[in-house]
Amino acid sequence: QLQLVDSGGGSVQQGGSLRLSCAASGVALDYVVIGWFRQAPGKDGVKEREVVSCISGSDGTTYNADSRFTISKANAKNAVNLQLNTLKPEDTAVYYCAAAKSRSVQDVCDTPLKFSFWGQGTQVTVSS
C-alpha cells in the first residue's frame, strides 16, 4: 500500500524560503504522479485543496501553478521535494502531498479528486 509522509513546513517571514519533502513507501515513484496541494485556513475537504505543483515519476514532466515554486524528485530517497521561494502571507496554508496512479501530469494535475493517496499535511505560515 502506498504511503506518503510530508514534512518541512514551518514559520517564515515574507520573502523567505522553505523546502517541503514527500517521502513515499510501498510503491516506486516511477508508477505515480506526485502532486502538492494546499488548503487555506477556513477551507475543509479534499475538494478545497488547491493544486500547487505536480511531477510525473516516470518521465519527470512537471507542472507549477506559480513560478516561485519548484518541484523535483529525490530518486535515491523515493521522495519528491517542493522548493517554496519568495513566500508571501497568502501562501499560508497546510500543504499536502498526494499520489495518483497515473504517469501523466496532464491527465491528473487539474483536480485533487484524481489523487487517491495523501500525506498528513505540513503547515506553512508566512508572516508579513
Please give the structural blueprint.
Blueprint: E1 3-7, E2 10-13, E3 18-25, E4 33-39, E5 50-56, E6 62-64, E7 69-74, E8 79-84, E9 93-100, H1 105-108, E10 117-118, E11 122-127
Parallel strand pairs: 2-11
Antiparallel strand pairs: 1-3, 3-8, 4-5, 4-9, 5-6, 7-8, 9-10, 9-11
Low-confidence stretches: none
- 3D shape: globular
Helix-strand pattern: EEEEEEEEEHEE
What is the CA–CA distance across the termini?
41 Å
How many runs of DSSP E, i.e. beta strands? 11
Q: What share of residues are in beta strands? A: over 45%
Share of helix, binned: under 10%
* Rg calc: 13 Å
Structural class: mainly beta
Return the average pLDDT rounded to an integer: 95
Major β-sheet profile: 7 strands, mixed
What is the count of helical runs?
1
How would you portray this structure in words?
- The mean pLDDT is 95.
- The chain has one helix at residues 105-108; strands at 3-7, 10-13, 18-25, 33-39, 50-56, 62-64, 69-74, 79-84, 93-100, 117-118, 122-127.
- It has 128 residues and is mainly beta.
- The chain starts with a strand and ends with a strand.
- The strands form two sheets. Strands 2, 4, 5, 6, 9, 10 and 11 form a seven-stranded mixed beta sheet that branches. It has a four-stranded antiparallel beta sheet with strand order 1-3-8-7, with no helix packed on it.
